[in-house]
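Researcher: I'd like a structural prediction for the single chain below. Treat it as a standalone chain; there are no partners to consider.
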Amino acid sequence: MFSSHIARVEELVREQNDWRDHCLNLIASEQVLSRRARSVMGSDFCHRYAEGHPGERYYQGTEKIDAIEADVKRYLKKLFGCLHTEVRPISGTNANEAVFSRYIKPGDIVMVNSTPGGGHISHQKAGAVGKLTRNVLTFPRTKDGYHIDVGRTKDLMRATKPTTVIFGKSLFLFPDPVAELFDVCEKIGCRVVYDGAHVLGLIAGKQFQDPLREGAHILNASTHKTFPGPQRGLILSNLGGDDWRQIDKGAFPGSSSNHHLDTLPPLLITTFEMLAFGEEYAKQVIANAQHLAAALEKQGFDVQAKEFGYTKSHQVAVDVSRYGGGSAVSSLLKENNIILNMNMLPFEPISHHDNPAGVRIGTQEMTRMGMKQAEMDQIALLIGDCLVRGKRVLDEVKKMRANFQTVHYSFDAPAKK
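Model: Treating it as a single chain, here is the predicted structure.
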């Protein structure tokens, strides 16, 4: 009865795999697993439960996953140089929920990056923070819109005394001033949370800021953006005692029960890859982003933050309002197998979210497929041909991508000669 429906499901999966292997995948929040990491997904672990900590489970039969989870925590601590790691959240937002629920009380004042300023929805009144308090303030921004105004923020913090400050963004071109604001945070006694979902791989590769060294009490993250692992969440901290116990309870039983065990083995393999190749990978990701930004400017695009070198992360922001806005541009590029997303820019009102002026481009996935600066020039030319010169570039995109089918900065890649 359902055989034709099942066949259709299988066909859709095959079509997706083939299609995205022939695309320029430039979504800033996506990444690809290595072949070896993917090979350990879908195991018997996907059928099993393991509530609690390794060695302290509420179920029998968890010895194998206990060994894997213990090693995930051990090697993540080594990679990030921290005392504690919580690996049970199943997404970055789930990690945020676990931490926010422990530190934000009803009526508390919380300071975050605004949505137009790049802040993630989970930091806003409409997201996880808004479930706990409605007193959400936003960091004053500098005139360019891509940086926090440190002086004005210090004044606002002294006047309002927030209990929690949340750094980190979704449109995240430059580091946030954690160290510059930590003295005020310390004086008023507020918690400092850093949402590193987008930049975790760059932090691991020692090419971005190091929030835990700069004063952040907690680093939350996703493990599948610049960090090239499976889709999970992560909490890192140097807090001890009751502080860490509260976070631990926030993860379980606070925001998760069983935690998708079959994605822990690929997270461990990815962690080994980042220990081995993370610095080289992160350097190339950022170099590619900066080169792509300059190449797009040469094509006539209004690339943002030029006066600051465009970007210090994996992201490039472009104002495409003259080409119909972010929604129209991203749709047209998608028809040519160039995949990126529309994005609000700092000068826009929140009402523009359905068709903002901007697009956001990420270089991390194509970097992992082996592309470097020369390919960034090609990508910029293809985008220019499509949007500026009105050409159909689908065949050129497929031809280009056909040469990049191996995951680099992994144990998949052939040894260098």
